[in-house]
Amino acid sequence: MTTHGGFEPVFCTVVPPHILDRLARSDDPALAGPAQRTLLRDGELRTLRQVTTEYRLAAVPTAKAPSDQPLRTIYDAEHGTSLPGTKVRGEGQDPGRDATVNRAYSGLGATFDLFLKAYQRHSIDGDGLPLDATVHYDEGYNNAFWNGEQMVFGDGDGEIFVDFTNSIDVIGHELAHGVTQYTANLTYNGQPGALNESMSDVFGSLIKQYSLGQTAAEADWLIGAELLAPDVTGTALRSMKAPGTAYDDDVLGKDPQPATMDGYVRTGRDNGGVHINSGIPNHAFYLAATALGGYAWEKAGQVWYDVLTGGELGERAFFTDFAGLTVKAARERFGDGGEELQAVAKAWEQVGVRIL
Questions:
Q1: In angstroms, how far is the first alpha carbon of the chain from the final one?
Q2: Catalytic positions
Q3: What's the rounded Cα separation, in Å, for the pair 184 and 177?
């Protein structure tokens, strides 16, 4: 396992603050109320995460999973906010009547499977870390998050967002923040933060593709395609294929993600636009994966995983740093004259990121 010193005190949510900010300003109390409560809750949780990390108050797991099997536990917060909540399903137990519990359990398993079978990684930390998740968190909570120790899912407000366990790529996205935490530990601000978010989108999408047996050509390359309520004009939270096109809605506004450096957004909000500018490395991965064809986790995914876990990616890496390391990794794994090296280099060129 590769780590870079102490862990960054990161609290990672799947719904970007700019979406919740817009909803919180709505004239409709059914939209504004849940968004305002979600923003307040996220702020409290972010502060708690910083305190527990700084003072080493986080719980240390006492159990380890078998090397080739997950160790999953699902809890029910029963619409409260105390974590983890009441245990409702353990590893190996049969599905119950609560579909949300069953989806969370399956999503944790799919994430474990991708990292084990594609990359020989044993759970999130590489050492059999138990996978815990809490469902039915808070009332109308419009988010899902990784808090450094476990997954937490809200049920959504039913107006804009529905149950956050509906999207397997969202489950994978949040757990992949844990993988980044235990490896490159990318700083959650600016370009390093956008890379942090992008790594989660990349592996979240790969987990979905792996579970469905999809090739790069067959995949939808959407993040959170099952999260938006029926009346929302949009397809997902983000599109790796076409950043900036995931939604265009009267309430949510228009997807602000750029696909290339020409559209890079400089902002002090959202930790320097980590959920917005992640569209650029996301698109680079999509371009590399589709150029190579086949199963995306085998070539492009392998290169990205090599960089994330290889020990050379600095905590404050910029896009150019990451791009250069992917080219190096493609060369080392697949050779100088291979299509892999060409596809990776061309992808970064297409999104306007220079390779140093």
A1: 27
A2: 174, 275
A3: 10
Mind listing the pLDDT tens digit for each residue in 60-79?
445 565 578 999 999 999 99
Query: String of b and e for 137-158 (b: at least 16 CB within 10 Å)?
Result: bbebbbbbbbbbbbbbbbbbbe
- C-alpha distances (whole Å) from 232 to each of 133, 171, 198, 315 are 28, 21, 24, 37
The pLDDT confidence band at residue 256, using thresholds 50, 70 and 90, is very high
- Residue 235, C-beta contacts closer than 8 angstroms, at least 6 positions apart: 222, 225, 228, 246, 247
Identify the CA nearest to 252 among candidates 120, 178, 185, 160. 160
| CA pair distance 342, 327, nearest whole angstrom | 9
User: Is the pTM for the entire model greater than 0.90?
Assistant: yes
Tokens of 261: 């450096």
- 72-76/131-135 β-pairing: parallel
Q: How far is CA 311 from the centre of its chain?
A: 21
Residue type, 354: R
Structure confidence by residue, pLDDT tens digits, 7-20: 444 667 889 888 99
* Ranges of H-type helices in 252-338: 270-277, 279-292, 300-309, 319-334
Across the beta sheet with 12-13, the strand order is 12-13, 144-146, 151-153, 131-135, 72-76, 86-90
Supply 83's token pair: 């974590």
Q: Are strands 151-153 and 131-135 parallel, antiparallel or unpaired?
A: parallel
State the number of CA atoms in the 13 A half-sphere of 334 facing the CB. Answer: 21
Bridge partners (DSSP) of residue 118 are none
